Amino acid sequence: MGSSYAFDNAWQHAHQRLQSLEALADPGSTRHLQATGISDGWRCLEVGAGAGSIVRWMSEQVGPSGKVVATDINPRFLPQSEASPIEVHRHDITSDPLPEAAFDLAHIRMVLAHLPRREQALERMVSALSPGGWLVVEELDFSSVHPTPDNSSEDAERFRKVAQAHQMVVEQRGFDTFYGRRLLDDLRKQDLRDVETEGRATICTGGSPWALSWRFTCQQLWNEMVATEIIEPGDLDRVIEQLDDGRFSFMSQIIMSAWGRRAA
């Protein structure tokens, strides 16, 4: 994903951050993946596999007769076992090849928005699908991020500034904070069949998976967020504290899911 990728798996709390993302996203992801008909013997691809929860779920669905190929630019957290159908590869979807027509199902989540050549990455994944194979893509859209009305005006304004500083930092690194709304058009450009989308969002409280994800993000990008001068260091520290406080609440990003299948 290149040097602009904001969330390096080498960071000391990277595993916890990835696990918080899995906890908030997995229920919706597995629902969409299940709808493709995944079953025994399927060959699956998980790109940017993170901490591996979807990889493990896929392996349970396909059984010993199937195969799950898990890729990541830093696969340090991915499960590896000779007794399972899982294959782990260090792989960059923007530059490294994939086997042609090899998979019944391919999934990528919260990766494409970081990439400068998203269409090429999608093309590579579509080419890796067997005829009739499914592609499921999931990305965030930040348009819904707001504090809820039950917060004090001071807390709400502080969180708005944190969200603004975070957005500025990740956009400077090439991340598209509104890429979720572009998924439908981008999948249609790939000439996939049966293309559909769905968005899901929630009101989050401190200590929830969404809040933990925000906390880890703020901690990882603390220096850069303060450097924007949108928010003072003390205010950012206060928001990080509130993200552990069940009395604080905010609206999450929208997780947009899009799916389609390669022509048979």
Mind explaining what this structure looks like?
This protein is α/β, with parallel strands linked by helices and 264 residues long. It has one domain: Vaccinia Virus protein VP39 (Rossmann fold), CATH 3.40.50. 37% of the residues lie in helices and 23% in strands. It is built from eight helices and ten strands. The strands form two sheets. Strands 3-2-1-4-5-10-7 form a seven-stranded mixed beta sheet, sandwiched between helices. A three-stranded antiparallel beta sheet has the order 6-9-8. Strand 4 (103-109), helix 3 (118-127) and strand 5 (129-141) form a beta-alpha-beta unit. Helix 1 packs across helix 6 and helix 6 (209-220) packs antiparallel against helix 8. The two termini are 31 Å apart. The mean pLDDT is 92.
